[in-house]
Amino acid sequence: MKDQKTLYKEAMQVLKETSRTFYIPITFLKNELKMSVAAAYLAMRAIDEIEDHEELSNEVKFDLLSATSELLKEEFDAAAYRSLLAPYAEHLPEVTLRLADWLTFCPDGSRDIVQASTSEMAYGMAKWAQANWQVHTREDLDDYTYYVAGLVGTMLSELWAWGAGVQTDRDLAIGYGRGLQAVNILRNQHEDLEERGVSFVPDDWTREDLFAYAEENLAKADLYMKSIDKRTILLFCRLPLALAHKTLKAMQEGREKMTRAEVEQTVEEVQAD
Questions:
Q1: pLDDT tens digits for 146-169?
Q2: How many whole angstroms from its chain centre is CA 55?
Q3: What pLDDT band is residue 137 in, cutting at 50, 70 and 90?
Q4: Contacts for 36 with CB less than 8 Å, ≥ 6 apart
């Protein structure tokens, strides 16, 4: 059994390898809040890798995600999880295989928050895998973006209240997550359709409608920021939001995404603030 210090070190390394976008803002946080958010990100990334997997069938994804959702409702059974993934283990990344480790190093006081949110997300992902991610209406889009991103917002809000006594609005927290996800949908729209045969755009919507949806939710994200008065949490929330705003602007100018130099400049601006 690895000790907490070793697990934490390994977790931060996996986090860095998995997502620079979230690794950097997580380093702005302190102590138990930093560990909680790192564990939460890795736990959610663990199930996200199942949802996005190119080789697993939708039926297998539904089964794995549904079962994982149930395991997360109780004290996590690492052996049962290993057994569940065993037939597919060679196809799955480290971040997914080590879900039990990420929950182990999560502080006791916040573990229930992280598990409950990840369980709900796994349930939603299972539902959408079964439906082959076919979004037809605004309600469908809201439902999908709630499960894969709005839930991140509500979970973070619970963690801010737990770890720092910072109170935020639930609807604005969902908007924060949805806004980031809407930008991702816009960025990957053609790729999703061509490579996966999946469209997250409601049937009667144009790309302009999707831009408006992103802007509407990013406006909620901007309001969400105003209720946060703790600097480390503000820095954490500000970076992904700044990148989302600038990515949206780049796409509206006809570019695919921000340049690496623009990303680095944004990171520097947020850190210097």
A1: 999 999 999 999 999 999 999 999
A2: 21
A3: very high
A4: 106, 107, 110, 113, 114, 159, 162, 163
Would you state the pLDDT for residue 2?
66
Determine the 3-state secondary structure of 142 from DSSP.
helix
| Spatial contact of 62 and 130, defined as CB atoms under 8 Å apart | yes
Rounded (5°) CA angle 104-110-111: 35
* Residues contacting 109, CB < 8 A, separation 6+: 32, 162
Beta carbons within 8 Å of 132's beta carbon, 6+ residues apart: 58, 197, 198
Contact 140, 200 (CB under 8 A): no
Residue 205 structure tokens: 């919507």
Confidence of residue 61 (pLDDT cuts 50, 70, 90): very high
Q: Is residue 192 within 8 Å of residue 198, measured between CB atoms? A: yes
pLDDT at 264 over 70: yes
The contacts of residue 117 (CB under 8 Å, 6+ apart) are 40, 44, 151, 152, 154, 155, 158
Which residues make Cβ contacts (< 8 Å) with residue 162, sequence separation at least 6?
36, 109, 110, 113
Average pLDDT over residues 167-173: 96
The torsion angle over the Cα atoms of residues 86, 100, 59 and 139, rounded to 10 degrees, is -170
